[in-house]
Each structure stands twice: as C-alpha cells, then as structure tokens.
Design brief:
Oligomer: single chain
Strand content: 5-15%
Distance between the termini: 44 Å
Radius of gyration: 19 Å
Number of helices: 5
Length: about 140
C-alpha cells in the first residue's frame, strides 16, 4: 500500500489552510475593526463593549483559502445589557444595537459602508467583496 500521508498533508497545508501571512492579515483586520469600533463609540459617547468574542471558523481555526479572498471573520462585540438603553431609559432592541455598531464602524474609509444584516453588521473590504455587494453585474 502506498503511503500518501505526506502528500495529503502538504496539499492541506499549501492549498486548504490559510498561510501564516493570511492568518496575520485576518488578525490585523479583526484588530483594526475592534479599534475602529471602540474609537467610533467613544467619539459618539456610546458604551464600549465589555469584551470581544471570536466566533465561527475564525475562532475554530478552520478558515480555508478562498480564491476571491472572500473571508468571514466572525467577531462578536459583547455589551452590558444595562449600557444599551435609549435616551428615555428603555432597553435598546437587538436592531438598535446593530445600528449603533454600524454607525461606529462607518468612519468613511470603506468603499462599501458596513451593513446592518439580520443578525450582524458586515464590513466589506475591496478585496473579497461579493459581486452582489460590489455594484457589478452578477457573474455568469
């Protein structure tokens, strides 16, 4: 029987998992967004997150290479419930919290502004923008 373990591992390391440089770039993007969020919240006098929680494939170290550099860095900003209140003292909804995060992230540096989605705020980078968000016609 032929031992192909070395070939499979080499393929996995070279073609599937992110390189150290790519992993570093993802960390830098994550950290930049955390800093951007904190700075945006502070400038508006809004509460800061208590902590951040990496999630999904990013947290599990299972992100894989993508030919279009379209990566999903799931990073949760956790706020104290008591901090998320409106001007009249009522609790903010989850949508209100997402809008707060989106407004803080939108510092004018993105080609496509961050978007409030159903359960998150999405930040787009020029490299890796899906066609449906880029203003380009769908690929055929």
């Amino acid at each position: 029987m032929f031992d192909c373990d070395a070939d499979v591992r080499a393929f996995h390391n070279e073609e599937i998992t992110l390189s150290h440089a790519q992993q570093s770039e993802m960390r830098n993007r994550r950290d930049a967004n955390r800093n951007r969020l904190n700075k945006g919240l502070e400038s508006k006098g809004d509460p800061l997150p208590c902590f951040y929680q990496a999630q999904g494939s990013y947290a599990m170290h299972t992100m894989v290479q993508n030919d279009n550099n379209n990566y999903d860095i799931d990073d949760g900003a956790v706020f104290a419930k008591a901090d998320l209140v409106g001007k009249q003292g009522a609790e903010n909804s989850a949508l209100d919290a997402r809008k707060l995060v989106r407004a803080a992230l939108d510092d004018g540096s993105f080609a496509i502004p961050p978007a409030v989605l159903k359960n998150c705020v999405r930040v787009f980078y020029k490299q890796g923008i899906p066609r449906r968000y880029s203003g380009l016609p769908p690929a055929r």
